Amino acid sequence: MRGGYPSWRNYFDIIVVSAAKPEFFTDDHPFVYLKTRSIPAIYLLTLLFILIVSFAAVRVVGGGLSGMRSYVDLFFMGAAFLLLETKNIVQFALLFGTTWLVNALAFVGILLAVLGAVELTKRVRIRHSERLYVVLFLALAGAWIVPPESVLRLALAPRLAVAISIAFAPIFVANVIFADRFRESASSTVAFGTNLLGAMVGGLMEYTALIVGYRALLILAAILYLGALLFRPRSAAPEQPAPAVVGAGAGPA
Known about the structure:
Growth Hormone, Chain: A, 253 residues, mainly alpha
């Protein structure tokens, strides 16, 4: 040090030490600002605050939490939906570029998949909709098996077709299940409140990508949908079925 300023040797030492063991980043885990695969403490405190506020708001507007016990499956579906939404937005940004237009098209595709599922359930009575979970898990498995780099090698038109198929097929099937289940609910307010609360939790779970990467969100979504299947009422005989809600998906979009 000369005159209080670091010499070129000090700069060289700093660069060498900081770059001695560089972290290996990928498109799946592109968080270059993290030293380790972890969620920073400030993030955790903020997420905890958001979760507390969400529980309080749903408690006031949606009624007591005890009334939500009948709709635990909708809670799981709401959480899973937000994970799928995040995964698809990141996937489209990877395949077509991180631009406002690509993000807008991804959101439009999600909303169209939700609307299509609602319109289908309005016109077609689906029996044994729980069997659609098999189709849902197959769609999730397909999205997991297809590597993004293989899709990226395709020309624009086939790349778009494949991306739409693997991204929106799980969302469409999940929303068909949700819309049919929501129609069976005795209280639309409590059912939607439970689903909304699950969506908030799913939004917080998105930050697990800081640890496991974006691709693993598909596994978390599959686990949550499995929870929805396990907690789905085996026999539903509501007193006043709730009307179908346009825009309600496997979680609010």
